[in-house]
Every structure is written in C-alpha cells, then in structure tokens.
Write a structure and sequence with these properties.
Blueprint (H helix, E strand, L loop, with lengths): L1 E4 L5 E2 H7 L6 H9 L4 E2 L2 E2 L6 E2 L4 E4 L2 E6 L2
Parallel strand pairs: 1-7
Antiparallel strand pairs: 2-5, 3-4, 3-6, 6-7
Helix pairs in contact: 1-2
C-alpha cells in the first residue's frame, strides 16, 4: 500500500485519483468511479465528490493508496 501525503483537510475522490496518477484524466476518474471500480475503505464508492481524509484507503485496479496528513 502506497502512502500519499495530502496537505489539506480532505481531497475529493476524483482529484485524489488524478493526484496519485491512478487515472490519466478527470474524465477517466469520473467514468471509473461511476462504474463502481473504485473502493474507499473497502466499500465501492460511486460518488466522485467523496471527501478523502487522512486515514482513508482508496483502491483501484488492485492498487491501494492511503491518504495521510502532513
């Protein structure tokens, strides 16, 4: 699992996926989230505006990313 430092209180799920280079664009993030391919803390999440806080774990294509604070 890769730890990803975020410098704000939260980051939206679609922006997080772009930030960690799990997707190539915001459009791809929107589609992948809408199709139920993304998990947040082990549960499928279809809300691209979902707030990701430090401690949350995002999973896509078998890759896991943990958001951590500064």
């Amino acid at each position: 699992m890769e730890k990803i430092t975020i410098s704000t209180e939260f980051i939206k799920l679609d922006s997080f996926l772009k930030y960690v280079s799990a997707v190539a664009s915001g459009g791809e993030a929107k589609i992948r989230i809408a199709e139920g391919e993304v998990k947040v803390n082990g549960e499928v999440c279809t809300m691209r505006g979902k707030k990701i806080h430090p401690g949350d774990i995002v999973e896509l294509d078998g890759n896991q990313f943990e958001a951590v604070g500064k």
